[in-house]
Design goal:
Layout (H helix, E strand, L loop, with lengths): L13 H20 L3 E2 L5 E3 H8 L4 H6 L2 E3 L5 E4 L4 H10 L9 E10 L11 E10 L4 H17 L5 E7 L3 H15 L8 H9 L10 H7 L11 H16 L5 E2 L11 E9 L7 E7 L3 H4 L7 E7 H10 L12 E5 L2 H16 L4 E3 L6 H10 L4 E5 L1 H6 L1 E6 L5 E5 L3 H10 L3
Parallel strand pairs: 1-5, 7-8, 12-13, 12-14
Antiparallel strand pairs: 2-4, 3-4, 5-6, 6-11, 7-9, 9-10, 10-11, 14-15, 15-16
The protein binds adenosine-5'-triphosphate and magnesium ion (MG).
Length: about 425
Amino acid sequence: MLTQAPRGTKDVMPFDAYKWQYVESKFAEICGRFGYEEIRTPGFEHTVLFKRGVGEGTDIVQKEMYTFKDNGKRDLTLKPEGTSPVVRAFIENKLYAMTQPTKLYYNTPCYRYERPQAGRLRAFHQFGIEVFGAKDASTDAEIIHLGMTFFKEVGLKNLELRINSIGCPECRKKYIEVLKEYYAPKLGDLCGTCNERYERNPVRIIDCKSPICQEISAGAPSILDYLCDECSDHFEELKRNLDLMKTEYIIDPNIVRGLDYYSKTAFEIISRDIGAQGTVCGGGRYDGLVEEIGGPATPGVGFGLGVERLILTLEKNNIEIPKPEGLDVFIAAMGKEAVEKAVEITSELRTMGLKVDFDHLKRSLKAQFKYSDKKDSLYTMVIGDNELQKGAVTLKNMKSGEQSEIALSNIAEDIANKFDEGM
Ligand code: ATP
Ligand code: MG
């Protein structure tokens, strides 16, 4: 127990962390390019927020939440998704009273009690964006374009954008009736979960992953045939805007999303390379949510993107993620006096902004060179008794093998010059 992380959790090792830093900074940069600003919300919220915001009938609320009472007997839940907390913050901080639309992005840990498998964890991370106060489909298209731009720029190619409209509560009412009529005689063949969904949230039967349910759902009526004029126009606008943004899509009436508050646009971005957990991004419009949580009626649209699944996809596709550069200078020092000099020079060069390290373990010169090599150093500086006596150190260019001497009295300046000249 002590030395084993809880089931469904994963450490990010130092040798992998650069991948995280890369996708995080790329996402932030692209969001900035599209005019989005970052929002950070706490790791837990009042349980009632998720019950209301995600919906009582959803898998998340039914069985996936980490809910607990704190010592003050408050009923709290670890964030299972990013949208509800952002909506809560939007209302609480009265962002609706500021210039609209409000365009936000986030990067957050999420917790869900699920059966762990590849790409499915109990503690995972989501990047997400939310736009409040804009109801036109050009916004829906913009967030989709943002997601696709991000995936393309990190190097993912084998992607599919699937879009659908799930209508508004009005047109969905009629659709749900027809849907229930369709499934009623087939209930015996549907899986147990879908039998529960039939009463609670029949639309979700459509995206059940069980092969039998999928086969039955193949003949189910399509929501697209039941859209009201407004929803239908909105869907046409979405397609038109995606065309303008040169973003290809597939219309897929089976994209229904798991959350109750979605309306109109629903979409998923799927990687064809990672098997069953292929959805790397899912989102849509949720015009009723802000009001549902107690704010003024405000349209909203957004997406959530699983970071672990994204990194898994990048790895599976052998997509090269730029590795951070190694040390500028490693100082190999032998002898007490030389080590003290190394401490002094290291701190001076670090203050100047260079990436510098020295040997903390009093190893042999050979071992120090090996270490310097491991750390991808551009230069190794050697300081020993000889060098101290001469008043000059040896500087070895680790790529070319070329060696030069620099006067001890002038080290900072000489090294700075080397880096200024581009080495
Ligand atoms: P799924 O159908 O795969 O369970 P979901 O509908 O529950 O997905 P959302 O709630 O829309 O997913 O979450 C957005 C994204 O977060 C997903 O597309 C996926 O990339 C990621 N995600 C969801 N659950 C997990 C998990 N347990 N572990 C890792 N990533 C996850
Ligand atoms: Mg899920």
